[in-house]
Amino acid sequence: NAGVTQTPKFRVLKTGQSMTLLCAQDMNHEYMYWYRQDPGMGLRLIHYSVGEGTTAKGEVPDGYNVSRLKKQNFLLGLESAAPSQTSVYFCASSSGVRRETQYFGPGTRLLVL
Amino acid sequence: AQSVAQPEDQVNVAEGNPLTVKCTYSVSGNPYLFWYVQYPNRGLQFLLKYITGDNLVKGSYGFEAEFNKSQTSFHLKKPSALVSDSALYFCAVRDDTGFQKLVFGTGTRLLVSP
Fold first, then answer.
1. How many angstroms separate the first and last alpha carbons of chain B?
2. Do residue B101 and residue A45 have CB atoms under 8 angstroms apart?
3. Do A107 and B42 touch (CB under 8 A)?
4. Which of A72, B43, B51, B70 could form a disulfide with A104 if both were Cys (CB 3.0 to 4.6 A apart)?
5. Alpha carbons A90 and A9: distance in angstroms, whole number
6. Using an 8 Å Cβ cutoff, are A33 and A93 in contact?
7. Chain B environment of A30 (Cβ under 8 Å)
8. Which of chain B's residues have a Cβ under 8 Å away from the Cβ of A99?
9. CB A59 within 8 A of CB A2
10. How far apart, in Å, do the first and last CA atoms of chain A sit?
């Protein structure tokens, strides 16, 4: 099992460009999450999904969109990147009654110039 | 709203000495508390959790955490630190509104010196 994988590992964008971050999990988990990690702020939840075809806003959703067309994939989109979106993005997944035990991907480092 | 606080940005300890990483919580009901660890250039990994029961919770890699209701604390401990324990440690609490998502603290960097 690969667990949770994220693509790409690192990306540099110019302000106003768009991109999509891909998260894939092979554990058949119902729940998937996108977080951003910034120094001194810990992890903040951007969006999450409780199942295929459903998504919901987290703590900091502005400027991001998500889609979960397949159970194993959770996409995070930036339509018009801003320097404030420079961050490390983590995807996670979990399942069942133990959904607080989340499995994290290795992260995507994004730099917006 | 549920929240956790990690008062120390960094903790330094010598290898072989006991370590403590502090966490305090604020909840409106019963606390569901967690510790996660992040090694360099990796995602977070689950260490342990407190739901109910024994105040001393044992987790992975020899770590344990002590739940103290009167002090609203959930400190992470290990009797003898290893250099390989050097990492970023996050305390988290389950938010019991809506989806019951996790709310993470700001993290504490643990540095274990040889």
1. 41
2. yes
3. yes
4. B43
5. 10
6. yes
7. none
8. 100
9. no
10. 36
Lookup: tokens for B62? 């020899």
Q: Say whether A41 and B106 touch across the interface (CB within 8 A).
A: yes
Q: Do B103 and B4 contact (CB within 8 A), yes or no?
A: yes
**CB B102 to CB A48 under 8 A?**
no
AA identity, residue B62: G
pLDDT tens, residue by residue, A8-55 = 999 999 999 999 999 999 999 999 999 999 988 889 999 999 999 999
Measured between alpha carbons, how far is A65 from B111 in angstroms, rounded to an integer? 37
The CA distance from B79 to the nearest CA of chain A, in Å, is: 24
Give B49-90 pLDDT, tens digit per residue.
Answer: 998 888 999 999 999 999 999 999 999 999 999 999 999 999
User: Which residue, B28, B74, B34, B36, is CA-closest to B55?
Assistant: B74
**A63 Cβ under 8 Å from any chain B Cβ:** no
Tell me the C-alpha to C-alpha distance, in Å, between residue B52 and each of A89, B32, B36, B68.
32, 8, 18, 12
Nearest to B42 by CA among A16, A90, A34, A27: A90
| CB atoms B49 and A56 under 8 Å | no
Q: pLDDT tens digits, residue range A42-84?
A: 899 999 999 999 999 999 999 999 999 999 999 999 999 999 9
Q: Do A56 and B90 touch (CB under 8 A)?
A: no
- Secondary structure class of B102 (helix, strand, coil): strand
Only one residue has tokens 């604020």, namely: B26
What pLDDT does B44 receive? 92
